[in-house]
Write a structure and sequence with these properties.
The chain has a 5-stranded mixed β-sheet with strand order 5-4-3-8-9. A two-stranded antiparallel sheet has the order 1-2. The radius of gyration is 14 Å and the shape is globular. The chain is built from 5 helices and 9 strands. By secondary structure, the chain is of the alpha/beta class.
Length: 152
């Protein structure tokens, strides 16, 4: 079951691409865009995260912290973030494998990776918007723009 709008976002601590622990609840006080993606270096994932990188101002205008999550090891996420110039946190849900993805109801057991899920979490830690797509289907960036415009 996936996370519903209006419910508290499950808390977690994961390593970012630099090996630093990032805890969701420690980001409270500002909105967070939590972006699950299946695989570093894959075509759709690269396109989606680079689109966020290229439009980071849409998030910064609302003081929204972007946090991406995959089940890739943090060393792979580091290489991916460096190769693509990603300046936001890219977190590793590697071990226990997919635990956070499962908590959000977005883990695909057959692929061993999360589906494409994005959750806008308000400053109090409550999910205000979400979009979920299967692994092979890209998210529409215009949906982010509309949701960011409505986030209070």
């Amino acid at each position: 079951m996936t996370i519903e709008i209006g419910t508290p976002a499950p808390d977690f601590t994961l390593k970012n691409q630099h090996g630093e622990d990032i805890t969701l609840s420690e980001l409270r006080g500002r909105p967070v865009a939590l972006v699950f993606f299946p695989f570093a270096f894959s075509g759709i994932c690269t396109g989606e995260l680079c689109e966020i990188r290229d439009n980071i101002g849409a998030f910064a205008d609302g003081d929204v912290e972007v946090v991406a999550v995959s089940c890739d090891h943090f060393f792979s996420n580091r290489a991916f973030a460096d190769a693509e110039g990603l300046t936001f946190s890219v977190l590793s849900d590697f071990w226990p494998h997919g635990e956070v993805s499962r908590a959000y109801g977005i883990f695909n057991e057959g692929a061993g990776a999360p589906e494409r899920g994005t959750y806008l979490i308000d400053a109090a830690g409550v999910v205000q918007w979400k979009v979920e797509h299967p692994i092979g289907e890209a998210r529409d960036f215009d949906a982010y723009r509309r949701a960011l415009g409505e986030l209070v």
